[in-house]
Each structure stands twice: as C-alpha cells, then as structure tokens.
Amino acid sequence: MASQPPSSSPPPDRPVGPEAVELAELRGRVAALERHEQPPRRRLLALLSAVLITLAAVLTPVSVVAVWARSQLTDTDRYLATVAPLARDPAVQSAVTNAVTDQLVQYLPVDSLLNQLPVADHPLIGPLLNALGGTLTDGIAGFVRGQVAGVVSSDAFAGLWLQANRAAHDTLDKALTGEGGGAVRVTGNTVTLDLAPLVDQVKAQLVSNGLGLAAKIPTVHTQYVLITSDQIGKVRTLLRLLQLAGFWLPVVTVLLAAGGVLAAGRRRRALVTTALAMAAGAGALGIGLDLFRPIYLDRLPAGVDQAAAGAVYDALARYLHAGVRLLLVLGALVALGAWLSGYGRRARSVRALWRAGIAAVRRTAERLGLRLGPVGRFVHRAKAWLCWGAVLGAVVVLLTWSYPTGVVLIWLAVALVAVLAVVEFLDEPGGRGAHPRRGGGASPLSPPR
User: Fold this and answer.
1) Which residue, 215, 262, 298, 364, is most buried by CB atoms nearer than 10 A?
2) What are the boundaries of the signal sequence (predicted)?
3) Which is nearest to 447 in space by CA: 376, 342, 375, 345?
C-alpha cells in the first residue's frame, strides 16, 4: 500500500502566524469572561469609575443652580435680562398698578380737606359732604388707577423697572446675606422691590393732569413682593453657598466625570454612560422646577397675586431651564459622538456611509474637472490633526461663550460636522484617480487602531 505524501498545509483548525496569535488571545478573553474572573485592581477601578460617574450625575443639577446663582448675583446684565420681561407681563403690570394705586389713594387727603370747609359742621351740609366724600374718594381712586395703569403699560415703566432693578442689583448680595437695605429687601418671609421711582412719576403725572391733591402725597416707598415663602431663610443661605461655589462646583463635576471615564475598563462605553447620566441629572432638575412651581404657588398667602407670582417664578427659572436644555443637548451629542467612534457594527456602518457619500461627491467633482493635487495629499497627511483641531476649536468656542444655549450648541455641532465633511472631501491619499482607501486617516469618527 503506497504511503501518502506528507501534507504541506496545516489542518484547517490550526491557523498559523498572526491569525493563531489573535485566535489564542480571543480564546483567553472568552475563558476569562466565562470564569467571571477579574483582577482585584480592575474591580476596584470599575467600582471607582461607577462612584465617580454617579457623583458627577448627582452634582450636575447642583452645578447648574450654582452657575445660575453666581450669574444672577455677580452679573448685572444677566440679572436685568432675567427680570426685564416682567415689565411687559400683564399679570405683573396689574399687580403693580393695584399696589401703587392703593398706596397713593391712602395718602390723598380728600376727607380732611372736606372737613376743613367752613360748612363742614352745618347740620344739613355736613352729612352731604360726608356722603360726597366717599363718592369723591371712589372717583379719585378710579382716576388714579387709570393714570397708574397708563404709566405701567408705557415704555417709561419698562425703563423705570430696569432702573430700579439695576440699583437693586447693587444691594442684592447684601439682601441675600441679610445685611443692609437698598432697593431689594429680605424681610421675614418676603423679598420685596422698592417702586419709589414709579410712585414719584405717577405723582408728577397726576399733578400735571389737574389733580393738585397729589402734590400733598409724601414720599411713598411702595414694596412690590418678588418672592414670598416660609423657607426664605434656608433658601437665602443655600443661594449664598451656591454663589460661592458657582465657579468651582462645575469644574469639580467635570473632573469627576473625566476621572470616572479614565478609570473605566471600556472608556468609550463609560463616556456614553457619563454623558447620558449627566444629561439625566439635568433633566431631573428641569422636571423638579416644573413640579415645584404649583407647590410654591399653593403655599403663597391669600393676598398674593397668583398670576404675578407665577410670572416672577417663570422669569427666575428661565435661565435654569436654558441650562437644563443645554446639558441635555450636550449629553446627547457627546454620547452620539462616542458611539459613532466605536467598534459596533452599526457605528461602522454609519461611518462607511459617511465616507462613501463624500467619496461619491468627490468623484463627481473630479469628473467635472476638480483637481485637489498637493492640497489633497496634505490633507491626507494631516487629517488627524485637522479633525481633532476642529473638535478642539468647537470645545474652545463653547467654553468661551458667555452663556451658551442649546441652540448655540446645535449650531456648533452643525459647523463641526461641516468642517469634518470638508476635511473628508479634501482627503486624497494619492494622485488623481487613486482609489479611496478602506480605513482612511484617523478622525474623530474613527476608532484608534
């Protein structure tokens, strides 16, 4: 029986070379996963990562409130932008009109002037004057209310409102700490704004319109209630602490998030988790603001105008909601970017579609006469630097923007995608007619090799 010649090829299940090394490594990883074995150091790092990411998510809403408190107390323009819309709010205008009218009518000496008439003690004319006094007071009150409403609904009131709040902002810090006076005062359970400039203007207008009695009204400091709550003392202390931590707390939160990502075994997955967790923390703050609004309004005293109080609450919470929307958009964009740069099948498919689409546009442009030449070869060599430079530029713009919003962030993302598309379009590895490479240069959308 003839002997078989020795086979020159290895068995089909025994690969050689780099494939054998890679297969052995994969088998080792699978075996380790099946045994659920993990080095103690890796377990500690995983636990540390989870703790840091959790702390970052918990501190995210607190950081938003801290930034808001610091901006309201240290930035006059920001504070005025917060309260300026209240001057045009119908509910606030109505409440201010009622408060100023009541104060002015209280000081108009109608009854005393009638009692000083020579016939005031006459048995027949005296009762008539008393009856006339009530009617006259009601008529004057209606006239005063109309004058006040006219001033409050005019552009002059918007200017007076900003003027009063600009002066008030200088003493707002003292008001929150309970020191000193000023246009804003914290007394008991209320935060009030002094409307004396408005009262003075209404007095002058009343005199010019023929009501000389208004000249006898003394200086009146009408207090408009901005906030009232039985927790003012606690809130005042908390806002003061948040003001002091307004800069460092967000920095600490970002450092905790970065530490959690770096300590994780799968950093890309940890980055996605961190971004979504911090966005969820911001979303919880937004939900809490909406839930607290009716609770706050229900606990107001009976004499407080509910509509005006709701308008003030909405104005104060306006930039808090803007911060919440910003973090929601930022978290979604960071999570999406981290996912797209991963090794998942769907992420690779998206990147392949991105490159194929831009390559098709480039081929069409080349058929029309476009020649990239040295530019294309330079972009190919510096593609990684160009892409990450664009990402860094977008981050710098975001960090240096005074008060970015969700809309600003979306436009920055659109601009970044456009720059990355241009870089991909100009990327030409060889000369004209060179075939597009499969992997391409490194970019923010490509995982490291």
Assistant:
1) 262
2) none
3) 342
What is the C-alpha separation between 247 and 132, in angstroms, rounded? Answer: 64
Give me the long-range contacts of 241-245 (CB less than 8 A, separation at least 24).
242/62, 242/65, 242/66, 242/69, 242/70, 243/66, 243/69, 243/70, 243/73, 243/74, 243/173, 243/176, 245/66
User: How buried is 169 (Cβ within 10 angstroms: 0-12 exposed, 13-18 middle, 19+ buried)?
Assistant: buried
pLDDT at 367: 85
The answer for 143, left when phi > 0, alpha when psi is -120 to 50, beta otherwise, is: alpha
Q: Report which DSSP code applies to 307.
A: H
CA distance 378 to 384: 11
Distance CA 319, CA 250 (A): 16
Please report the pLDDT score of residue 115 as a whole number: 46
In sequence order, what are the residues at sequence separation of 6 or more whose Cβ sits closer than 8 angstroms to the Cβ of residue 168? Answer: 182, 183, 184, 193, 194
End-to-end CA separation in angstroms for the chain: 54
Give the pLDDT confidence score for residue 415 in this predicted structure: 93
- Residues 56 and 253: their CA atoms lie apart, in Å, by 5
Q: Residue 342: which H helix or E strand, with range?
A: none
What is the sign of the dihedral through the CA atoms of 408, 413, 414 and 415?
positive
Cβ atoms 172, 79 nearer than 8 A: yes
State the 10-residue block means of pLDDT for the chain, 449 residues long.
50 56 70 59 85 94 87 81 87 85 72 44 47 59 80 83 76 55 56 72 73 65 64 63 76 93 89 94 94 86 81 88 92 90 85 88 85 85 89 89 86 92 83 45 52
pLDDT value at position 126? 45
Q: DSSP letter string over 205-272?
A: HHHHTT-GGGGG-----PEEEEEE-TTHHHHHHHHHHHHHTTTHHHHHHHHHHHHHHHHSSSHHHHHH
DSSP string, 20-67: HHHHHHHHHHHHHHHTT---HHHHHHHHHHHHHHHHHHHHHHHHHHHH
The pLDDT value given to residue 435: 46
- Measured CA to CA, the distance from residue 274 to residue 338 in angstroms comes to 11
Confidence at residue 39, expressed as pLDDT on a 0 to 100 scale = 67
Q: What pLDDT, on the 0 to 100 scale, is given for residue 57?
A: 94
Q: To the nearest 5 percent, what fractions of the chain are helix, strand and coil?
A: 70, 5, 25
164 close to 189: Cβ distance less than 8 angstroms: no
SS3 193: strand
